[in-house]
User: Fold this.
Amino acid sequence: MTRPLRVLCLHGYTQNGQTFRDRMGPFRRSLKRTLDPVFITAPHEATEFQPESKEASESRAWWNRSGDVWAETAQSVRFIHRVMRDAGPFDGIVGFSQGSGMAAILMALMQAAHTQKPQNTHWDADHWDADLCELIQELADCPLPKFAMLFAGFYPELPQFDILVREPKGCKINVPTLHMVGQTDAIVPMERGQLLATQAFVDAQLRTHEGGHFVPGNAAWRKQYQEFIDGLDLQR
Assistant:
């Protein structure tokens, strides 16, 4: 490897880019020769919960469950698209909690942009929502990431995501992924993380740790992260 792999890092609900970066300290330090992480902050204010600490300067979200969930999600997709276009290219994506769900939505849209053709019936508004078709076409100028590492993620319960990853209209995301779920996670139960891996991805490696809602950072897990990256076919 001639250079560290650039990875776009998507934080969890009520976090922001800086707080996520701070919490990923052991992960960043152990993989500093392998990964070049770029942490960004979601465009929406988190309206449902307060920040976990008073030091948090911003409590942000990729979407809120109240209001028009898909409208906020689409705005976040367009925001991330601008980052990928202006600051990319990125080799991979790292997500935590809601950021993992956001990464899955983004990759499903990008895959559709590169596999569907405008003349295909899938692009017909009678088959796919017209707004969804428009968003897919906007992402055609960004290549799919070569891999993703998704921590404490969950399957986004959005009809648009179902359409993208489930037959007959969609298909599972064909991006190599490492999914980490916690056995005692009280915020995102382990089963929801397993659902994301098994129902939305083709090439998913699912790992379970004994802890809760966090990114495991001990030496044994850091070794597994490195082994996952070393095993990737980065020519894809």
Notes: Residues 118-125 have pLDDT under 50 and may be disordered. The CA atoms of residues 164 and 170 lie 4 Å apart. The chain is about 40% helix and 15% strand. The first strand starts at residue 5 and ends at 10.
